[in-house]
Design a protein that fits this description.
heterodimer; A: about 400 residues; Rossmann fold; 2 domains; 9-stranded mixed beta sheet; 6-stranded mixed beta sheet; 15 strands; about 25% strand; B: about 290 residues; about 75% helix; globular
Chain lengths: ~400, ~290
């Protein structure tokens, strides 16, 4: 009894003298967020962070008796300087003593940091970086965004089997994710019996797309697949196509979600009508979970709609919270990643789960068409494919190139 | 075949004119005043945000916003010129670079704070969008507009700088400050006006570039390389040089991306290196 009283006295004193943080240390879980809050990809950081914020606003900042503390780091010139992301990961683990890391705007950032997590045994939740192979680089990686081929291979197959495409021309940005989508679309398209009549890759910095629009026009293909990263490029490309008379009226145009995001659609206007995309999230998705989500994000972002980055940030936090509940607040890498494997829940985008073999996300791919809904130009979901796994890692598994923990051999 | 060639030539020329309207102001501030003004993109961005804000918040028509974009960027530049730039007119290139690059980073952060990190799309009036097509000939309407705007800007600048009193004063002050001062010219005033002109042109270029290039806080930095290429290859202080170079680079870029897409992105830089080896001071250098 005396000891308890002494303890209480000490606690009170500590609180009085502002020493509370030392006491609270055992009772907090620190999550480091590495995102591009500034620079060319600054908007990705804004959108992902808003998702994480909303989840914490809805579910409180305490889970399994532990207080969640976020430590934000700006990977700034993300993609162009992956060593920055790696250094930030090291600093977060060594100096800030974080328990979990999340974020990663672009693929190079995640790839460069992989070894840091393997060595330190910390779980890293990828909230965007979308190249398929990332999760095979460390047994502590998991992902709540999308491995690009998941949606795009499905889109390639669907184009032939359900939408009557025969000859396709592919146009992608010349970097990791772009090439990922090119391979994915072409393999899906060919597997279903279609023919690829040509392809072109854009430089990453490319203010004018007219030369490529002209190539597409000259190819005489009946279908086109287009991938560009977000930012100013989707609108620039959309306009170049419209100026060259290439529109969904004369040719079937397929894309990932970037080309038909909110801002590109505003900028392209009517000329975007009819573009078909295969993607995992749209704010127009019709479900009660999504209605609440969209409302919450509009409050945080002063009227902007959530996009794929936002939903991944939200689900990333959801995954961390749910896993911590399951482990009773234990956050060491091995316990936590084991708890995450096989986790399934209802996201604003629909039902999702974490593949226990690859630690990557399993989700529904929606086929959407850009339509004019009461004067608003937006995506409308009209078909879907449920429980899609990443075809790249499925192929690796079939070829015996994947370890039991989901890393590459 | 001919039609495709003509269409590509037109696309390239129009792209060049876009580079020209973005860079011509820099040709004035960097070229004529000899100030390493890396913050040129910041003034362009100010023009862009003025246009977007007026169109969205106040419902102004696109054309009405253009003069305001010019004036706003010019006014902002006068403030910066009085407070910061003039102190460094005689400083080394490195000092000037450090000052102006600092301004760029600050402007990016301010723009992100005020307007958010997202793209700011504008919806242009329908008579400026779409295309005119005859068979295989194909012309984007906004591109035609850009070409017309670039030609008008060139004509006004060349005439204004070479045939007016103000132009004569500018040239005098730039060429020989001491002599100009000795003859009783208000060199400070002329420099301020010239700087405002260059920055105003940047603002106008920024407003015109929203449609093809988009607008976000990073705009201040993103196209700096292209602006510097146009001014460096054209020859400092030469409006004609900037015009010819921009047109040339635009056409080369589009043609190389069409015919050799595998290496298309590099050809522009190869040409730049080649031209600078051949004429280190630029194609139309005055000194």
């Amino acid at each position: 009894m005396r000891k308890v009283l002494a303890g209480l006295g000490g606690l009170a004193a500590a609180t009085l003298f502002g020493l509370a943080p030392v006491q609270a240390q055992d009772n907090t879980i620190k999550i480091g967020l590495i995102m591009s809050y500034s620079g060319q990809f600054g908007d990705l950081g804004t959108m992902m962070d808003a998702g994480a914020q909303l989840y914490m606003k809805e579910h409180g900042d305490t889970v399994a008796g532990k207080k969640i503390v976020l430590v934000r780091k700006d990977s700034g010139a993300a993609g162009t300087a992956p060593d920055v992301a790696k250094r930030l990961a090291q600093e977060l683990i060594v100096r800030d003593k974080v328990d979990i890391i999340a974020g990663f705007s672009l693929t190079p950032d995640a790839l460069a940091s992989a070894d840091v997590f393997t060595e330190s045994k910390k779980v890293a939740v990828i909230m965007n970086a979308a190249t398929a192979i990332i999760t095979t680089k460390s047994p502590y990686f998991t992902r709540t965004s999308i491995p690009l081929p998941q949606a795009i291979t499905a889109l390639g197959k669907w184009a032939v089997t359900k939408n009557g495409s025969k000859q396709a021309f592919t146009m992608v940005t010349n970097y990791g994710p772009g090439i990922d989508t090119e391979t994915a679309f072409q393999s899906g398209f060919k597997e279903a019996g279609g023919q690829i009549v040509g392809s072109v890759r854009f430089p990453v910095q490319n203010p004018d797309f007219s030369a490529f629009a002209q190539q597409l026009k000259d190819s005489k293909a009946d279908s086109a697949f287009i991938f560009v990263p977000g930012g100013e490029q989707p609108a620039a490309l959309g306009k170049a196509l419209a100026e060259h008379g290439v529109s969904p009226k004369v040719m079937k145009i397929y894309s990932s979600g970037e080309l038909v995001g909110d801002e590109p659609l505003k900028s392209m206007g009517e000329s975007a009508l009819g573009i078909i995309s295969g993607w995992h999230y749209s704010w127009t998705h019709n479900s009660p979970e999504n209605a609440t989500f969209v409302k919450g994000i509009r409050e945080i972002l002063k009227g902007r709609n959530p996009d794929q980055f936002t939903v991944s940030g939200y689900d990333g936090m959801a995954l961390i919270y749910k896993a911590l509940e399951k482990t009773g607040g234990k956050a060491d890498g091995d316990t936590l990643i084991a708890a995450m494997k096989g986790m399934s829940w209802m996201s604003p985008r629909g039902p999702i789960s974490i593949d226990p073999e690859t630690r990557d996300i399993i989700q529904t791919v929606y086929f959407r068409r850009v339509e004019n809904v009461n004067g608003n130009i937006q995506n409308v979901e009209f078909d879907k494919l449920e429980n899609v796994k990443d075809p790249v890692k499925e192929a690796m598994k079939a070829a015996g190139k994947l370890n039991p923990d989901g890393t590459a051999k | 075949m001919i039609a495709r060639f003509v269409s590509l030539l037109f696309d390239g020329f129009a792209y060049g004119m876009l580079l020209f309207v973005l860079s011509v102001g820099l040709s004035v501030t960097l070229g004529m005043m000899n100030f390493v003004n890396l913050a040129h993109g910041t003034f362009a961005m100010i023009g862009g945000y003025v246009t977007v804000t007026l169109m969205r918040q106040a419902g102004w028509p696109f054309f009405a916003t253009l003069p305001v974009a010019f004036i706003a960027a010019a006014a902002a530049s006068v403030v910066l010129e009085r407070v910061l730039y003039r102190r460094l007119y005689r400083a080394t290139d490195l000092d000037q670079s450090l000052l102006t690059i600092g301004i760029v980073f600050m402007s990016i952060a301010i723009a992100a704070y005020l307007f958010g990190t997202n793209q700011q799309p504008v919806q242009l009036p329908s008579y400026l969008t779409g295309r005119i097509a005859y068979g295989d000939f194909n012309f984007g309407v906004y591109r035609l507009f850009l070409v017309a705007a670039a030609l008008a800007i060139t004509a006004i600048l060349v005439l204004g700088l070479e045939y007016t009193r103000f132009g004569a004063r500018v040239r005098a002050c730039v060429d020989n400050q001491r002599m100009a001062r000795g003859l009783g010219l208000n060199v400070d005033g002329v420099f301020m006006a010239t700087f405002a002109l260059g920055s105003g042109l940047a603002g106008l270029g920024g407003a015109l570039a929203i449609e093809p290039m988009g607008l976000d806080p990073n705009f201040a930095f993103k196209y700096l390389v292209y602006m510097l290429i146009v001014v460096a290859v054209g020859g400092l202080a030469s409006i004609r040089g900037a015009f010819v170079t921009a047109a040339l680079l635009g056409v080369i870029d589009i043609f190389s991306k069409y015919y050799v897409p595998e290496v298309g992105a590099f050809v522009l830089y190869l040409v730049m290196v080649g031209l600078l080896i051949w004429r280190p001071a630029g194609l139309f250098a005055r000194r």
